[in-house]
From TrEMBL:
Family matches, as InterPro entries: 3'-5'_exonuclease_dom, 5-3_exonucl_a-hlix_arch_N, 5-3_exonuclease, 5-3_exonuclease_C_sf, DNA-dir_DNA_pol_A_CS, DNA-dir_DNA_pol_A_palm_dom, DNA/RNA_pol_sf, DNA_polI_H3TH
Root EC class: transferase
Keywords: DNA damage, DNA repair, DNA replication, DNA-binding, DNA-directed DNA polymerase, Exonuclease, Hydrolase, Nuclease, Nucleotidyltransferase, Transferase
Domain DNA-directed DNA polymerase family A palm: from-to ranges: 744-950
Domain spans labelled 3'-5' exonuclease: 372-575
Family to which the UniProt record says this protein belongs: Belongs to the DNA polymerase type-A family.
Keyword Oxidoreductase attributed: no
Listed name of the protein: DNA polymerase I
Catalytic reactions on record: DNA(n) + a 2'-deoxyribonucleoside 5'-triphosphate = DNA(n+1) + diphosphate
Calcium keyword on record: no
């Protein structure tokens, strides 16, 4: 061994103790052999070796050994017969595991070292000092205080359970003395676990003070008469010999006989087949797969090794350390997985390990629908409520009669909990359904008869309400906003919750859907029963309250069961991927905020909509006549086939392309391109489509969304439907009402305030350009925003050399189109169409733009490169947007993903800012004692309903909250600006 080498010394006995304390009694399935400690030991050792070989960690060992106690009989027993005499015999189920753990060490191709008559600590001390003498570095894998006396600048300790390095500063911080004084400190304090006597009445703090004053133990004993405290002085003088004896007991030997010389501890590579054979013999499935992947072995062709099991005296091992440090150990949360899988999970030392182990364990776990129960009596419900409080975590779902939480009734509740004490259903996760609103349909043709054998709503709400409102019990749901709003209508406000849909959204936005079915299939390898299977579809479909209770119970309980399992898989991944803050600060709090907004709704004037509908019909009819005249015949304008035949068949317009069905493509883009070329008929078709869509989607449809009781429209916000973090609204969609057309703005006039109130629209001004200036750090843009200059006029001046004062509107319009187009990765072709100019001219504009603002090109290039390397991009708050196809071999697919990846950090950061504003808004208004109510969010705009007498006081509060929303997480380089005004309708307020 030489300078530059690094020796890892593992306290194997300490690993045994930690593994034993951390895990429940685990047995091998085939014969009941106790293997809990073996499993924990193997997982911890594999984790340590994997990390040790990861050069990115910074410490890579060249030499490695695992050290064990030979037995409890050592030379210290000869010094002091009572040494460790208070320790009990090892538990019966640990005894056979001592030998198995030694065999495991050899299977890992590691030196397994023990010396009769000496403790593992003595062997570690001897090797450490020998290695240090050669100039090598040493890391002792242990948290045992007895080993801290060995710490020097070249010898460190590492607590693998806490992922904590222990050097000289850490020893001083914990004990108040440097490592070289640890022997004297322990001699004074003693050790009740090892039965080291020490001096009565002297604790660690007192010992540290005495050693600081007198230097060392012998000096202290010689000058004990100088101690001012009478009792302390007398105790030290009376027990001086015990202190000297204690020092001999705690001082580690540096001359332990070693069967294996230092140079023979070279770290060898793992023998994959040998290790897999042992792991298969132990039936450690999850670890076997990980090792096989790492060693590139086919585990299926490797036979289990023959492993000898020793019982009784033959199974040599130390006494179980009842006082061992188990602070890093965790009690297992059983969740319908095998004990072997639980062992693999709790061998995990980091969130990433735990996330991986959980995913593997739950993928292999069987889900047995026959174990679900139906709660039909109060006593059973009370038992479940007590169990939920004891467990502290419960998956919960409210089963409604409609997808609209504002109009649905509750048919029942489903719940699931991890049961660590008893499992009446035969599973570690037990799930149930509580029906109380089901109908039988047997009493009359309308189906109003109440189904038999179910609790009443009063009995259920009396017991469930306190639990759901108890912040000490975590409620877990999927798409929890639905249940939150449904229950809020019944006087229940859920406190303390998690949403697995939002966990998945934070973890994998852009990778796939986040429905319960999709998540269950992806993470648990299980496809649950669909609603269609249970309730039917179409004309024969039933509302959930009409479904037979037994069938409903299985369906609903399974949803709760899967939700709980998914939370156990996804929650540690948030920590492992460093996304917990995104989930907890941007996603989870918005559930309650949006639910309250949806409940409030907004007033819509039916008469205005009716009048607008008539106007749109007249305009559309006029355009229809013009279309028929231009085409030379009447045809069905809404038919893509007939329209395509007219445009490309009869009229022979250029650019025609057929779809897979053989029809001409008449998409909006095709028509826009033809219109940009100057063709009249495609332009008329585009105008007709816009008018008829406004009529069918808004003026005709909105009255049907007015709630029969509240007389308001209640949109529903989707939290997890976009890749970038933007919210979307459905039923009805209020975010796509066009505002650049006169007709679109007229539709907004139908959204009105209630009597005695005004609507307030608060809108971020050019937020995405401001975010771009911040992210790309563009000096010209930053300065313009700071000075309050018209950003589009400034851009035009920079690009075209035209003074800002007196700038023609056409020049400013072109600059505005480029500014916003750049954010969305616009091409020369797209810009040419938008500005009705030649493509070469548009290309020249874009080229000139990048020359004037080179930082934007740098941002785009670096963002694309990052996305290609990582598969995702990030907002300024750490939200990730995944683009899995950014490396696609298809140029069009790749280019689309590159444009989306460039835009996502900008659009996503803006979305995150308004989320932060929404989450803070209600508490801020309440603190200011203002009654304003937030009703809608439309991209960069928030709409409030404010009492007439509070408008003047409310506007500055809203503006300040929105403009400061990024703080304190992000100090924006560019100030955010919000425009807010009040009016009687939405259009006037905007």
């Amino acid at each position: 061994m030489k300078k530059g080498d690094h020796l890892f010394l593992v306290d194997g006995s300490g690993f045994i103790f930690r593994a034993f304390h951390a895990l429940p009694p685990l047995t091998r399935k085939s014969d009941g052999l106790p293997i809990g400690a073996v499993s924990g030991f193997c997982n911890m050792l594999w984790k340590l070796l994997t990390d040790a070989r990861d050069t990115s960690v910074g410490v890579t060992p060249t030499h490695f050994a695992v050290i064990f106690d030979y037995s409890s009989k050592t030379f210290r027993k000869d010094l002091y017969d009572a040494y460790k005499a208070n320790r009990s015999e090892p538990p019966e189920d640990l005894i056979p595991q001592f030998g198995l753990i030694r065999q495991a060490t050899r299977a890992f191709n590691l030196p397994c070292i023990e010396t009769e008559g000496f403790e593992a600590d003595d062997i570690i001390a001897t090797y450490a000092r020998q290695a240090e003498a050669t100039g090598a570095d040493v890391t002792i894998i242990s948290s045992d205080k007895d080993l801290m006396q060995l710490v020097t600048p070249n010898v460190h300790m590492y607590d693998s359970m806490k992922d904590k390095q222990i050097g000289i500063p850490e020893v001083i911080e914990k004990w108040g003395v440097p490592p070289e004084k640890m022997i004297d400190l322990q001699a004074l304090v003693g050790d009740s676990v090892d039965n080291v006597p020490g001096i009565p009445g002297i604790g660690p703090k007192t010992a540290a003070q005495l050693l600081e004053e007198f230097g060392d133990l012998e000096t202290l004993l010689a000058r004990a008469g100088e101690i001012k405290q009478v009792k302390r002085r007398e105790s030290i003088i009376a027990n001086a010999d015990l202190a000297r004896l204690s020092r001999r007991l705690v001082e580690l030997r540096l001359d332990t006989p070693l069967d294996m010389p230092l140079d023979s501890l070279v770290l060898e590579t793992q023998d994959g087949p040998k290790l897999i054979a042992f792991l298969k013999a132990m039936e450690f499935g999850s670890l076997t797969r990980r090792v096989a992947d790492a060693c590139d072995c086919d585990a299926s062709v490797i036979e289990p090794a023959h492993v000898e099991v020793q019982w009784g005296a033959a199974a040599r091992g130390p006494d179980l350390d009842a006082g061992a440090d188990t602070s890093g150990a965790q009690a297992p949360v059983k969740a319908g997985i095998s004990k072997a899988a639980a062992a693999d999970i709790y061998g995990a030392a980091t969130p990433a390990d735990l996330a991986k182990a959980r995913a593997e364990a739950f993928t292999s776990a069987k889900i047995d629908r026959s174990c679900y129960v139906t709660i039909r009596d109060v006593e059973a419900l009370d038992d479940w409520m007590r169990a939920a409080r004891e467990t502290g975590v419960i998956a919960f779902e409210a089963e409604g009669t409609s997808i609209d939480p504002m109009q649905a009734e509750i048919a029942g509740f489903s719940l699931a909990l991890a049961d660590n004490t008893h499992t009446p259903s035969g599973r570690d996760i037990r799930a149930a359904y509580i029906p109380f609103g089901h109908r039988s349909g047997s009493d009359d043709l309308l189906g109003s008869g109440r189904a038999e054998h179910q609790l009443t709503s009063g009995e259920v709400f009396e017991r469930v309400k306190p639990l759901l409102e108890d912040a000490a019990v975590l409620k877990i749901g999927h798409n929890l906003k639905y249940a939150y709003l449904l229950l809020k209508r019944h006087g229940i406000e859920i406190a303390s919750y998690d949403d697995v849909m939002l966990m998945s959204y934070v973890l994998e936005a852009g990778k796939g859907p986040h429905s319960l079915d999709a998540l269950s299939d992806r993470w648990l390898g299980h496809m649950p029963a669909s609603f269609k299977e249970v309730a039917g579809s179409g004309k024969s479909g039933l509302s959930f309250d009409m479904v037979d209770i037994e069938r409903a119970s299985v369906y609903a309980a399974e949803k709760a069961d899967l939700t709980l399992r998914l939370s156990m898989v996804l929650k540690p991944r948030l920590a492992a991927d460093q996304l917990t803050r995104v989930y907890e600060r941007l996603e989870r709090p918005l559930v309650a905020t949006l639910a309250r907004m949806e409940e409030r709704g907004i007033t819509v004037d039916r008469q205005i909509l009716s009048r607008l509908s008539g106007e749109l019909a007249q305009k559309a009819a006029a355009i229809e006549d013009a279309i028929y005249e231009t085409a030379g015949e009447r045809f069905t304008i809404g038919s893509p086939k007939q329209l395509g035949d007219i445009l490309f068949g009869k009229m022979g317009l250029p650019g025609g392309a057929k779809t897979k069905t053989g029809q001409w493509s008449t998409s909006a883009q095709v028509l826009e391109d033809l219109a940009a070329m100057g063709h009249d008929l495609p332009r008329k078709i585009v105008d007709w489509r816009q008018l008829t869509k406004l009529k069918s989607t808004y003026t005709d449809a909105l009255p049907g969304y007015i709630h029969p009781q509240t007389k308001r429209v209640h949109t529903s916000y989707s939290l997890a439907s976009t890749t970038t973090g933007r919210l979307s609204s459905v039923e009805p969609n209020l975010q796509n009402i066009p505002i650049r057309t006169t007709e679109g703005r007229k539709i907004r006039t139908a959204f009105i305030s209630s009597v005695g109130h005004k609507l307030v629209s608060a809108d971020y001004s050019q937020i995405e350009l401001r975010v771009l200036a911040h992210v790309a750090d563009i000096p010209q843009l930053r300065q313009a925003f700071a000075d309050g200059i018209d950003i589009h006029a400034m851009t035009a001046s920079e690009m075209f050399g035209v003074p800002v004062e007196g700038m023609p509107s056409e020049i400013r319009r072109r600059a505005k189109a480029i500014n916003f187009g750049i954010i969305y990765g616009i091409s020369a072709f797209g810009l040419a169409n938008q500005l009705s100019i030649d493509r070469s001219e548009a290309g020249e504009y874009i080229k000139r733009y990048f020359e004037r603002f080179p930082g934007i090109r740098d941002y785009m290039d670096s963002t694309k490169a990052f996305a290609r390397d990582h598969g995702y991009v990030e907002t300024i708050f750490g939200r990730r947007a995944y683009y899995p196809e950014i490396r696609s071999s298809n140029p069009q697919v790749r280019a689309f993903n590159e444009r989306a990846a460039i835009n996502a950090p900008i659009q996503g950061s803006a979305a995150d800012i308004i989320r932060r504003a929404m989450i803070r808004m209600e508490p801020t208004l309440q603190a200011a004692k203002l009654a304003a109510r937030m009703l809608l969010q439309v991209h960069d705009e928030l709409i409030f309903e404010v009492e007439d007498g509070e408008i003047e006081a409310t506007l500055p509060v809203i503006v300040a909250t929105m403009e400061e929303a990024a703080m304190p997480a992000i100090a924006m380089r560019v100030p955010l600006k919000v425009d807010a005004r009040a009016a009687s309708n939405w259009d006037e307020a905007h």
